[in-house]
Amino acid sequence: MRQSFTVRPAFFHPKARQTIQAFPKPVRLAIGGSIFDLQRGAQLSMPMSRPMPDVAPGVHELRLRGADGAYRVFYYVKSIRGVVILHAFEKKTQKTPPREMEVCRKRLREFLDAGELT
Q: Structure pTM?
């Protein structure tokens, strides 16, 4: 007997989608698999993902390593409409740069102000 599950939609900020599309193929495939897991209701944890309360409640950081570097994707899970992919970047420093966190905050505000997450 097959087990059924619900797949929640994934919403991408256009710039996050564009950035992810420029990542190396193995990284893109790993991101896609992780987002699909989130859509099915999985709660990812370290080392794959971690909460980012300094950005905003409900924002998490997907952590991936490719052959040529580290990649990060910020996503929001508190929307009743689905998983929201807010920001993606190639990580070049040990600590997440404040500028990257601010970009994520701004994009989350854009979604919330437009009423797209409720």
A: 0.90
